[in-house]
Amino acid sequence: MFEKITLADSAQLPVWRRPIALLFVIAFAMPIAFSTWLALLNNFVIEVADFDGGDIGLLHTVREIPGFLSFAVIFLILLIREQVLGLLSLFLLGVASAVTAWYPTLGGILMITLLSSIGFHYYETVNQSLQLQWIDKKKAPKTLGWIMAAASAATILVYVLIIMTWETLGLSYNQVFLATGGITAIIAVFALLYFPQFESPTAQTKKIVLKKRYWLYYLLQFLAGARRQIFVVFAGFMMVERFGFDVHELTGLYLINLVANMVCAPLIGGLISKFGERRALLIEYFGLVAVFLAYGGIYFFGWGVMLAMALYVIDHLLFSMALALKTYFQKIADPEDIAPTAAVAFTINHIAAVFLPILLGLLWLKSPGAVFAFAALMASGSFALALLIPRHPEKGRETKLQGRFAHS
Known about the structure:
The longest helix is centred in the first third of the chain and has 29 residues, at 19-47. The chain has 15 helices and two strands. It has helices spanning 19-47, 53-68, 73-76, 82-98, 106-134, 140-165, 173-194, 215-241, 247-275, 277-300, 305-320, 323-332, 338-349, 351-366, 368-386, and strands at 4-6, 197-199. α2 crosses α5 and α8 crosses α13. The relative contact order is 0.16. It has a two-stranded parallel sheet with strand order 1-2. The protein is globular. By secondary structure, the protein is mainly alpha-helical. Residues 403-408 have low confidence and may be disordered.
């Protein structure tokens, strides 16, 4: 049904039909729906569905269930090509996001969130796999940085439009969700029909892969997922609940984040290429410890909104350095392990995500500062583990420990 072509032969195609071009197109498309949903979510659930901290924790627990089940991608690619699965998942994300406002109750929001989350997590699992298969190792940090910048550019465009039109045109949640989700779905269909099916140079293992020598990568993924949940669930919720941010104000804060990411992501990719994954991850984790402790100080000591806004931007920039974890795995992995390990790693990343949001949502009702203190503790654990990454990781040199844990 679709034209098939090897990666080597794809060099003969026009630049805008090559594999890297497809990665940029879908990177641009995904955040149009997802980032808009994320920007409007806290205001939508508080204003329309009267959510409290417990409800938002439950919502994000439901949202992360498909992430925990990402290993199912391994079985799906027995039936459908990775590239097609990724684009169909992107389409589902767009359609489900588009109709979010049609279900303004707790049950309805949970249902539609589950559907959009299936699209998002399965898309992300496949996307990460294709990135590591299609991008040359030497160029990966810089290329991934530019892809992140493209995603930020797409979201900037959407957020500028929201800021300019939300109040002046009296837009509704339904109008914005329909427009942005619909655009993502349309781009997914275009990419499915326009680009050839690219054949990766190494056939991927189509079964669950767990290797002892990847143990450090697995642990870092687990802690990264736990920390990410606290940021995604509670940092934005804090801006609305504690400081009363409106839609256009919260979107403005996201916009500042995106501009910073668009400028810094390619630079971060270049720094990772020059100084290595170990230093980049140590900087990220040390910075996150400081940021989460400062978040806690907002509640324990009553620090103000300007600090909260600054921390939100710094937090986001530090998370962009996590692309070093991708390139660390690319350097140590067997080529045929990339797809199955991407799926397994996504599941590991979401183990804590299934239970942490609802548990921490209940803790939030008692002590929001304690939630951020817990995040600082996890970031400290990541820092300690990152010390074990070699300066030049490769197969057979996955960690600084060269004993029994360093071999498969």
